[in-house]
Amino acid sequence: MLRRIALVCAAGIMVVFILSACGTEKANQEQQTADVKLIIKASDYKFDQTEYRVKGNQPIQFSLESTGNHGITIDKLDLSLDPTNPNQVITPTAGTYTFECSIACGLGHKDMKATLIVE
Questions:
Q1: What is the chain's pLDDT, residue by residue, as a tens digit (119 residues)?
Q2: Which PROSITE patterns match (predicted)?
Q3: Residues whose CB falls within 8 Å of the CB of residue 73, separated by 6 or more in sequence, listed in order
């Protein structure tokens, strides 16, 4: 019986540590700020530009303004935006990154492509 109580207490402590770590990561993401902002607008199965340019090696706030259900994911930059997470601050490295709408949004979905050029 004493062993069972010890196991339950240990499990409870582990859950508290895990939840506090998740909260800290979220807080750190929310505290990140950037002087440079890039807004990407998505609607009618297209992005507002076919090409976006930013300077690299500096924090940039990427924002998705979407009419409809659209998203963007660039795995190589750990960038993921969608209607539930429309803003993210990252420090991108130089390169050319093609991205597409990451949410199956309808008949024109396959045509939603653009390029991010980080100089």
A1: 556 554 444 544 554 445 455 544 444 444 578 999 999 999 999 999 999 999 999 999 999 999 989 999 999 999 999 999 999 999 999 999 999 999 998 888 999 999 999 99
A2: PROKAR_LIPOPROTEIN
A3: 79, 80, 81, 99, 102
User: In total, how many domains does the chain have?
Assistant: 2
Instruction: State residue 98 phi and psi, 5-degree precision.
Output: -90, 135
H/E stretch holding 27 reads helix 2-31
**Burial class, 46, CB count within 10 angstroms (exposed 0-12 / middle 13-18 / buried 19+):** middle
The answer on 74 and 22 residing in a single domain is no
Place of tokens 């990407």: 40
Give the integer Cα–Cα distance in Å for 100 and 112: 5
For residue 99, the cross-strand partners are 114
Token reading at 38 = 């890039």
> Does pTM surpass 0.85?
no
Contact at 8 Å (CB) between 98 and 77? no
